[in-house]
Amino acid sequence: MATVMDVYRFLDEKAPFNTQMSFDNAGFLVGRGDKEVRTILVALDITGAVVEEAAQVGAELIVSHHPVIFIPARHVTDQDSAGRKLLALLEHNIAAICAHTNLDIAPGGVNDALAQALGLEQIGPFSEDGLGRTGVISGAPSAEAFAAQVKERLGANGVRFVDGGRPVRKVAVGGGACGDMVSTAVACGCDTFVTSDVKYHEFQDAEALGLNLIDAGHYPTENVVCPVLADWLQKGFPGLRVYLSYRHHEVFSYC
Fold it and tell me: Is this model's pTM higher than 0.85 or not?
């Protein structure tokens, strides 16, 4: 039977934790390494609802993208949401492994999954550190038409975009908050950039540079990696039950 540390070492081979960015806190964050694992729940985030779901399906381990501990914890009590999540994990004896920026840059990770979900071809690197991907799309749709395709393919509740005045041919993608890489997208010869959490001035910069910029939301641009994680784990540990969270979803809606 596999242990929590067996799963950690497996994921470390797929997306080495030592490649995470300096600000990050990816890794084995909660639990006992020698605990036997029969069931794993995969989710983008570890929320209170996800912990409840893990307990209901009998999972000994949650594997998530976003770290359940990111800002250093000064206390763990039931007086705030962060403390309640950690208490729930401990009380249910559920471990947590979180693969964050190391999974963003890993081959087959977040950005490859995003590029594939958007139907890009000739997928290649976007930056020297591996954060993001580029690819081409056929048909040369308008920025508005491609934004609608992005919304549909990612199952997003809505998208924000600025039309840079060029048809969509070469696309850069950056799962999560990569709006500060607008100039990198232009330098790569891209006419379009799909990311999330774009700031007002970043939309202005993109328009001035003639770049179509599409903000498809943090959850939709990164949740595409969860089926990838589940598939890796199921193939790596065929004797385990691996579930994708059905309770975790986009946190906000558009009216």
Answer: yes
CB 24 within 8 A of CB 66: no
Is 107-221 the same fold as 4-103? yes
Tens of pLDDT, residues 77-124: 999 999 999 999 999 999 999 999 999 999 999 999 999 999 999 999
107-221 under CATH 3.40.1390.30, yes or no:
yes
User: Taking the domains of the chain in order of start, what are their residue ranges?
Assistant: 4-103, 107-221
Cα-Cα-Cα-Cα dihedral of 173, 234, 250, 199, to 10°?
-20
Kindly report the CATH number that applies to the domain delimited by 4-103: 3.40.1390.30
Tell me which residue of 29, 7, 41 sits closest to 247, measured CA to CA. Answer: 41
pLDDT digits (tens, 9 = 90+) for 191-247: 999 999 999 999 999 999 999 999 999 999 999 999 999 999 999 999 999 999 999
Report the run of H or E that residue 121 belongs to, with start and end.
strand 121-125
